[in-house]
Amino acid sequence: MPLDMLRAICEDFLNTEFPLPRSAIILSGGEPLLHPDFVEAGDIVRKLNGHLTMSTNGILIPQYVHTFQKNDGIQVSVDGDEGAHDFIRGKGTYAKAVKALQLLDEHGIRHSLSFTISQANKHCVDHIMDLCIETGTSTLNFNIYQPVRDSDLKHIGYMEWIELRKYASKRAEKEGISIPEGCIEGGCIARILGLSVLPNGTYWDCSRNQKVIGQYPQPIKEVLLWDNIWKQKPVNPFETCCRNLTW
Ligand SMILES: C[S@@+](CC[C@H](N)C(=O)[O-])C[C@H]1O[C@@H](n2cnc3c(N)ncnc32)[C@H](O)[C@@H]1O
Ligand code: SF4
Is 116 in the pocket of ligand 1 (CB under 6 A)? Predict the structure, then answer.
């Protein structure tokens, strides 16, 4: 995404009148650290939003860790133990993700771990929690894998995920790790309080649902579900990202 477009979209988003006390801009992808002008892109977001929040596979963190600030929020994806993570993401990638968490911890940069659960890694919950403890990671995002085209990964059932979450939350409480409630349990906010923007300027309702709802330079206020916003009514996630899950 060109930097001018990034700036304009962030400004439009922040100026859109949400009935919310605060807003968040998350650089994701794809892989945000592959942007040729990543440092400048991060500075634009920091200037507008106070800090940078980002989701990464961690591979390029050694190159960029010196450019982060302590109150940025860097989320590294770890999809299980070495066997499961490398099976899902490619050989050698687990070691790089762990190294990224260690470096962020050493530099005192706020960091979190994102674990996306499928049949390939559902046995790794304790491993992920151990890793959080070892790397000073106090927030764990515990996601369910949504089946998508062009992937052989098999999803788990919704209730199985709820049970694994309950197990993880019990241990997390003892260890002082926070597992935030997500939009799936809290009510889908796609196109109500949030949206995703692709590098080509296409608006999606949510990266997990991938319904095209507009295109930059169309103003963001034109693509939101205002009726739901005024009535404070979330969408049913089983009509969006969870529609392909089994119960
Ligand atoms: C799409 S990635 C992009 C950022 C970065 N490249 C990374 O690997 O984290 C952001 C997060 O979405 C998760 N994710 C990817 N595909 C998913 C799917 N089909 N269902 C649920 N989560 C998914 C990833 O595991 C990752 O934690
Ligand atoms: S589509 Fe799914 S991931 Fe996206 S906001 Fe709705 S419930 Fe959350």
Answer: yes
